[in-house]
TrEMBL record:
Keywords for the protein's UniProt record, in alphabetical order: Oxidoreductase
Protein name: Oxidoreductase
UniProt-listed Pfam families: adh_short
GO cellular component: membrane
Transmembrane feature ranges: none
Keyword Cell inner membrane among record annotations: no
InterPro entries per record: KR_dom, NAD(P)-bd_dom_sf, Sc_DH/Rdtase_CS, SDR_fam
Superkingdom of source: Bacteria
GO function term, MF aspect, one: oxidoreductase activity
Length: 261
């Protein structure tokens, strides 16, 4: 009797927040996992997820670097990826000209360059097999000029747009591409981005488990995109019909540090 291997899911940014919740969704749905993050906590997460019955490999790597992406790809050891959930991302608050450029570069290299490098490698393998699912974590922030969060919002605008372009290119390939676009979520994002002194940083936020379940269901259904949460859906709809200067002013009120306001 031949035992069919479990499908493999690769989840980045999986040490906490939405990424951890997505990894749990995959494990509960019968996947083996390769999970990645740039923090040592990823090993503890792997230990916990193994209790759900599948094999779990943890990779601690900085996906803003080429070496980090290559280390993650090497961990596949030639095994095909059935689902790629590219969730790794970094934020950065405060005014653009006041930010350290190395921090700016790290946001771009994590959210855009590293994500593209991983997608390029895994996507080619999926296309060659004629099957696979890709979930990209974008953001409703990509719909708004992000005053006091300009680089992050710009990076998410790229991901939101890119996901639809890649989906169209792969429409006849057997590979689906889905973009999850959450709003503010209760994760370590705002702490890491230096935004705890802002209105959005101090406001109530969505549950990452709810956001992940919404994204995972959309990926399984092969949907093109999904905005999680009713409030976020309304905000996204308004962004499409609101002039950019108005959106930028609205975002300033949410993201400007209180001591600068």
């Amino acid at each position: 009797m031949t035992i069919e291997p479990r499908p493999l899911a690769l989840v980045t940014g999986a040490s906490s927040g939405i990424g951890l919740a997505l990894a749990r969704c995959c494990a509960e749905d019968g996947h083996d996992l390769i999970i990645a993050a740039d923090e040592p906590e990823i090993e503890q997460v792997a230990f916990a997820l193994r209790s759900l019955g599948g094999a779990v490999t943890a990779v601690q790597a900085d996906l803003a670097t080429e070496a980090g992406v290559e280390a993650l790809l090497a961990a596949l050891a030639g095994r095909p990826v059935d689902a790629l959930l590219a969730n790794a991302g970094r934020g950065l608050g405060h005014a653009f000209l006041d930010q350290d450029f190395s921090a700016i570069r790290h946001v771009v290299d994590t959210n855009v360059t590293g994500t593209l490098r991983l997608l390029h490698a895994v996507g080619q393998q999926m296309r060659a097999r004629g099957s696979g699912r890709i979930l990209l974590t974008g953001s409703i922030a990509g719909f708004m000029p992000g005053s006091y969060q300009a680089v992050y919002n710009g990076s998410k605008a790229f991901i939101d747009s890119f996901s639809h372009a890649l989906r169209d290119e792969l429409k006849d390939s057997g590979v689906t591409v889905t973009c999850l676009m959450p709003g503010p979520t209760e994760t370590r994002f705002f702490e890491r981005a230096g935004m705890l002194d802002t209105s959005v940083g101090q406001a109530a936020k969505d549950d990452p488990a709810d956001v992940a379940r919404t994204g995972y269901a959309a990926m399984k259904a092969g949907d093109g995109d999904v905005v999680s949460g009713v409030k976020n859906k309304l905000q996204a709809a308004m962004a499409h019909v609101t002039p950019a200067p108005v959106l930028a002013a609205m975002h300033r009120r949410m993201a400007e540090p209180k001591e600068e306001g």
